[in-house]
Design a protein that fits this description.
The complex is a heterodimer of chains A (507) and B (360). Chain A is an alpha/beta fold. Chain A contains 17 helices and 23 strands. In chain A, the strands form five sheets. In chain A, strands 13, 16, 19, 20, 21, 22 and 23 form a seven-stranded mixed sheet that branches. In chain A, strands 6-7-8-3-9-10 form a six-stranded mixed sheet, with helices on both faces. Chain B has one domain: ABC transporter involved in vitamin B12 uptake, BtuC (Orthogonal Bundle). The chains are: A alpha/beta (507), B mainly alpha (360). Chains A and B meet through helix 10, helix 11 and strand 18 of A and helix 9 and helix 10 of B.
């Protein structure tokens, strides 16, 4: 670490009604892995977009190696040596790796030369990748490698990575970290955006923490505890969810030999899934995205019917029942996608309360709606789950992600479920809202309900669940007590590194 | 530079203002069109919008407003239920025709018997005819996943040919000296859909249309089924999560719109038109699509939009007669109304800002 690569001075960017970045200043050193930390809406993306030339700052300046740096567009930023791996990949499934990379280049060389370069670079950095494989067949981790190699071919001075580990297994994360460390040794600077504090402690040299658009501090992650960093992010003391440690009771939900074809072309089929959930138990289900999580939720919620006896609720077969019949029994669900699945974006919160509450809350009589009661129910959710909104007449889409998630979880929790199934309950939710949601799940279990938490956030699963199982290509592993598991074991349950180690060995 | 910015939630004010904007914009663009045709635009607009209501011969045209508006409103109400749920019945014209054929056939089968139950049976026949015709695209969609837009639209042309075959064949007036077309139901009191109050244009079909408005309003605002319809239109996956059965919803929405279109056909053939003839249908089924959207798919909005559209029909005919405007210009004028409505619709979900451009 010698000298400064990029120096950011007083960057400010305001959008109507919100100051996304307020005079943010910090330096990124040469050959440094610099973490950018902050809750959702803290201004991380806006800041990075300004560096990458996607957004123009209102005021403030940037310097690269002492020279003024103000890229008017991403192309200029790339020319100056800034590369970025986005959280959401921009790849074409039908094309192969080399073709995808060629598409992103200004003057792509002939495909054969490019393929050779891809091979060289990928082996050099321990990211083996066959340039002729079709992207549609690659795992999420391999797709990410395509993006990374696309960046590395530009020989960047600064590599920006936006939440790179959210789609990876622990083993894949280790491989990625090796690559990033290697890049650092070669003098490439990396700006690493994440909210996973342990990862930042393991990888990053420096961390800049943003809160409400302002730089609220810099720290050396190695010398700072995760809790301290989290509190800097939130700006207040963090409440750690506490389990009351309820006694587990009788079997609440019993899934036996559940198989289900994939509901869509890009879905995953469920293969012979067995699981048993006791009253008062929180079962965490991990796994890399796209391994059957959505399908499992659809099968449990009743949106997809399955054979009668595949699912038993308190001993009663319910596989053939639809969502409302299952709700009436006490099996409630909260899907992952808030806008469009768990809630209707353009409808009011009152109408969204009605969406799942009609049966258990008695919001209808003989088919006729009781709007007064529905509104009361919505107000109840808003009050008890601290949903920040002017009132129940506001549209669901006007709420921030965290607030809407609190509403969606609250709507199910307040209906006193016997069994609650949630998928990604705190995805994209800020730390304090996430803590509140996890606490609500723990309280629910303490009252004797069975809870299934499907999540890709291992820290979350470790925090709340009594038992852990993993989904891998539609198969569910046997559950094991969470307290006894190591990270390596969890990784193996999740399906290892998807054959990555093998590829690694061949390379 | 002009910039569009998405509103956090749809503006209620603009949802109701945009139809008015659309009408004003249509008047302006229509006026320009008429001016380009060498007519006095102010006079043309006055002839279309003012004379039928308050002109010298308004006593004749005002009842026409209900006669023309009735079927438009009735069909549009049915269509709006499906449109709300994202189920696109474009073939109301066909269901209207088949409803008319079936209803008239029931009546003609009893000729010359006079009895009180004939007209109710005809209503039943009309409703069933429209319902069954709409069940074809509905069942095909549910069973085989076909596109209801294409199937329902193509069935319009099948229905038109069926109409021609009926007018020339089984339903032809045996005492009609070989002319195509059925007996005139106006001369058959038990089957005639007469005005309920003489001189107002208010016949049983108009009454049914008004009842349909009330029915749709209650369904959409007070009933779980209406909520399911709206939810399916807004967020289909959320609807499924909520427990809506998509198959049943498709059958209900297409069936309901077919039934109402069939009723409109029956009331028309047994009243204002009087007979099953080759050119019996005049496009109410298609115009009702415009009416449904112009009325924001809202029952009360559709009521107003239906009357407005009826006005342009009557005023348009008047303008053709008095000012020599070509009929194509009138149709263009009606088309503009939908065009401008869709254009200004943007304002409901977006607001316009004057802002400096930003580096993209």
């Amino acid at each position: 670490m010698t000298g400064t690569l990029i120096s950011i001075q007083g960057l400010t960017k305001a959008y109507p009604g919100v100051v996304a970045n307020d005079t943010v200043s910090f330096d990124i050193g040469e050959g440094e892995i610099h973490a950018l930390l902050g809750e959702n809406g803290a201004g991380k993306s806006t800041l990075v977009k300004m560096i990458y030339g996607l957004v123009k700052p209102d005021s403030g300046t940037m310097e690269m190696r002492g020279a003024p740096f103000a890229p008017p567009e991403p192309r200029a930023a790339r020319a100056a040596g800034v590369a970025m791996v986005f959280q959401h990949f921009s790849l074409f499934d039908a094309l192969d790796v080399a073709e995808n990379i060629a598409l992103g280049m200004e003057n792509p060389p002939p495909l054969r030369d490019l393929a050779a370069r891809i091979r060289t670079v990928s082996e050099e950095y321990g990211l083996p990748l066959d340039p002729y494989r079709t992207v549609g067949d690659l795992s999420a981790g391999e797709r990410q490698r395509v993006e990374i190699i696309r960046c590395l071919l530009q020989d960047p001075k600064l590599l920006i990575m936006d939440e790179p580990t959210s789609v990876l297994t622990p083993q894949e994360v280790e491989i990625l970290f090796e690559t990033l460390r290697k890049l650092r040794e070669e003098g490439t600077s990396i700006l690493y955006i994440s909210h996973k504090l342990e990862e930042i402690r393991a990888l990053c040299d420096t961390a800049t923490i943003l809160r409400l658009g302002k730089n609220v501090g810099t720290c050396v992650p190695r010398d700072t505890t995760a809790r301290q960093m989290a509190e800097m992010m939130v700006g207040s003391e963090l409440q750690t969810p506490k389990s009351a440690g309820a006694e587990m009771g009788a079997v609440a939900l019993d899934v036996a030999g559940l198989s289900m074809p994939a509901p869509s072309q890009f879905g995953t089929s469920l293969k012979n899934v067995h699981l048993e959930l006791k009253k008062g138990e929180i079962l965490g289900i991990g796994g890399v995205a796209g391994n059957g999580q959505d399908e499992l939720l659809l099968a449990l919620s009743g949106e997809l019917r399955v054979p009668r006896d595949a699912i038993k609720f308190a001993g009663q077969p319910i596989g053939h029942l639809g969502p409302n019949a299952r709700r009436a029994l006490g099996l409630l669900c909260a899907p992952e996608e808030r806008l469009g699945h768990a809630a209707a974006p353009d409808m009011s919160l009152t109408e969204n309360a009605l969406l799942t509450g009609a049966v258990r809350e008695g919001l209808e009589r003989n088919g006729f709606l009781r709007w007064g009661k529905a509104r009361q129910f919505a107000e109840d959710i808003i009050a008890k789950f601290d949903v920040r909104t002017p009132g129940p007449d506001n549209a669901a889409r006007s709420l921030s992600g965290g607030n809407l998630q609190k509403f969606v979880i609250g709507r199910e929790v307040l209906q006193r479920p016997e069994v609650l199934v949630v998928n990604q309950p705190t995805w994209g939710v800020d730390a304090s809202a996430a803590a509140a949601i996890r606490q609500a799940l723990l309280d629910l279990a303490a009252r004797g309900a069975g809870v299934i938490v499907i999540s890709q956030d291992l820290d979350e699963l470790m925090e709340v669940s009594d038992n852990f199982a993993a989904l891998n290509e539609g198969r569910l592993t046997a559950k094991r007590p969470t307290a006894e598991l190591t990270v390596e074991e969890i990784g193996l349950m999740m399906g290892g590194a998807h054959g990555m180690e093998v590829a690694h060995a061949e390379a | 530079m002009l910039k569009l910015e998405k509103r956090p939630q749809p503006s209620r004010v603009f949802a109701w203002l945009t139809p008015i904007f659309a009408v004003i914009a249509t008047m302006i663009a229509g006026g320009l069109l008429f001016a380009a045709l060498g007519k006095n635009p102010v006079e043309a607009i006055r002839t279309i919008f003012w004379d039928p209501l308050f002109g010298e011969f308004a006593f004749y045209y005002r009842p026409q407003l209900l006669v023309k508006g009735g079927p438009l409103i009735l069909i549009a109400i049915g269509l709006s239920l499906g449109f709300r749920a994202g189920i696109w019945n474009i073939g109301a014209e066909g269901q209207y025709i088949v409803g008319a054929i079936c209803g008239a056939a029931v009546g003609l089968a009893f000729y010359p018997l006079e009895a009180w139950y004939i007209f109710p049976l005809m209503i039943l026949g009309g409703a069933l005819g429209g319902l069954l015709w709409a069940m074809i695209p509905a069942l095909l969609k549910v069973k085989f996943g076909t596109n209801e837009i294409l199937v329902s639209l193509m069935l319009v042309y099948v229905a038109e040919n069926l109409l021609a075959a009926m007018a020339l064949g089984p339903l032809k007036n045996p005492e009609g000296h070989g002319f195509p077309g059925s007996r005139n139901l106006k001369d058959y009191p038990s089957a005639f859909n007469d005005e309920i109050i003489t001189g107002t244009g208010m016949h049983w079909g108009v009454l049914t249309a008004f009842l349909a408005v009330i029915f749709a309003y209650i369904l959409l605002n007070r009933h779980l089924l209406g909520f399911s319809i709206r939810l399916t239109g807004e967020a289909p996956r959320a609807a499924r999560f909520s427990g809506v059965n998509p198959t049943r919803l498709i059958l209900f929405c297409l069936g309901m719109s077919g039934l109402m279109a069939g009723l409109a056909g029956l009331f028309e053939v047994s009243g204002p038109s009087g007979q099953v003839s080759i050119d019996f249908n005049v496009g109410y089924g298609f115009t009702a699509i415009i009416v449904a959207f112009l009325g924001r798919l809202h029952p009360v909005g559709i009521l107003l939009a239906g009357l407005l559209m009826a006005l342009t029909y009557i005023g348009g005919e008047l303008a053709q007669g008095n000012l020599g405007l070509p009929s194509a210009a009138i149709q263009l004028f009606q088309g503009m109304l939908l065009f401008f409505l869709l254009a200004v619709d943007l304002l409901t979900n977006y607001r316009v800002r004057f802002a400096k451009s930003e580096a993209a």
